[in-house]
């Protein structure tokens, strides 16, 4: 019988401590409709550049797709919200382009995650007078417990829907500061979105409660699931703490293989924005199942499996539950 996998297990378990428009009729309206469709489509897909068209609305730039989606739910139609990065982009090692610097210079508000995620933020905002807000303000971070980053804050706070309620409140206040005429709308939108977050959080816990006690170990490539693991009562083990150039060391791979064997972990997962090679190696070495891809640092395209943050949480919870129970 496998050892107990209670969430309080001390083995690499920060979980215990602790991302279409419509065409109109008649020829006289075709071109304006196409222009509108393109603008909406680019916004929804997380286009990295702010539009050159001045529609009289404030421009908001979020640092990555998950954050942009949260901001859009709070903003409604009152401002233009864009993501600096495109779907599928790895955020940790991102390097802003000249086009990104222009977008930042044009923005009225720049929303970052904070907790050390955007180490390049000062470069991005070097020529920008935009108001800046850190979405994780007021959130108690969980620590990274392994590797060179041990003791630093784990930046993936958005993987807890409870935390994202605070994201929404913080963003609503920042939007009200740059657009006071719609302050009440932003606050109302944040409350409505928070109700959806409560529902998705409850669904997450209910879905993962189906995982048997002796299989409640979540093994992933990056340690990006500390907040989700804490919410769901899972034991977390990962190959590397945060995405970096030197990710999977031989020693860490050996430790992960031993953990999977010792606890008879049924499946191993990896994130959508990283190399799946280490996961595949663990699977071959241990006989565990390939649990598949999880989404963390980026949403998918609109026609992909996780075009919104709520979809991301649903997808990940379902994938983890199936991987650990089937």
From TrEMBL:
GO CC annotation terms, alphabetical: cell envelope
Gene Ontology biological process: cell adhesion; metal ion transport
Regions of compositional bias (Polar residues) in chain numbering: 1-14
Classification via Pfam families: ZnuA (PF01297)
Molecular-function GO terms, alphabetical: metal ion binding
InterPro entries: AdhesinB, Bact_metal-bind_prot9, Lipoprotein_PsaA-like, ZnuA-like
Residue segments, region Disordered: 1-24
Location relative to the cell: Cell envelope
Keyword RNA-binding: no
Keyword field contains DNA repair: no
Broad class of where this protein is predominantly found: other
This protein's UniProt keywords: Metal-binding, Signal, Transport
Homology family: Belongs to the bacterial solute-binding protein 9 family.
Protein name: Metal ABC transporter substrate-binding protein
């Amino acid at each position: 019988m496998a050892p107990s996998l209670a969430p309080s297990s001390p083995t690499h378990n920060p979980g215990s401590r602790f991302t279409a428009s419509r065409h109109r009729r008649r020829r006289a309206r075709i071109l304006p409709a196409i222009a509108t469709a393109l603008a909406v489509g680019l916004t929804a897909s997380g286009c990295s550049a702010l539009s050159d068209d001045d529609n009289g609305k404030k421009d908001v730039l979020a640092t990555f797709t998950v954050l942009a989606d949260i901001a859009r739910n709070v903003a409604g139609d009152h401002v233009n919200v864009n993501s600096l990065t495109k779907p599928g982009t790895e955020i940790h090692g991102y390097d802003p382009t000249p086009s990104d610097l222009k977008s930042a210079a044009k923005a009225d508000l720049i929303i970052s995650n904070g907790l050390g995620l955007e180490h390049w933020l000062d470069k991005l905002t070097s020529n920008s007078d935009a108001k800046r807000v850190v979405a994780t303000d007021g959130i108690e971070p969980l620590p990274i417990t392994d590797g060179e980053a041990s003791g630093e804050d784990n930046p993936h706070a958005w993987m807890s829907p409870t935390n994202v309620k605070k994201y929404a409140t913080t963003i609503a206040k920042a939007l009200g500061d740059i657009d006071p005429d719609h302050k009440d709308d932003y606050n109302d939108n944040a409350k409505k979105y928070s109700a959806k977050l409560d529902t998705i959080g409850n669904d997450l816990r209910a879905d993962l409660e189906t995982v048997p006690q002796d299989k409640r170990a979540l093994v992933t490539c990056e340690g990006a699931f500390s907040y989700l693991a804490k919410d769901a009562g899972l034991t977390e083990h990962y190959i590397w703490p945060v995405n970096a150039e030197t990710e999977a060391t031989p020693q860490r791979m050996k430790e992960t293989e031993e953990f999977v064997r010792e606890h008879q972990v049924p499946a191993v997962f990896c994130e959508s924005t990283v190399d799946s090679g280490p996961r595949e190696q663990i699977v071959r070495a241990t006989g565990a199942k390939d649990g598949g891809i999880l989404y963390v640092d980026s949403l998918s395209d609109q026609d992909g499996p996780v075009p919104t943050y709520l979809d991301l949480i649903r997808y990940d919870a379902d994938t983890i539950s199936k991987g650990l129970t089937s």
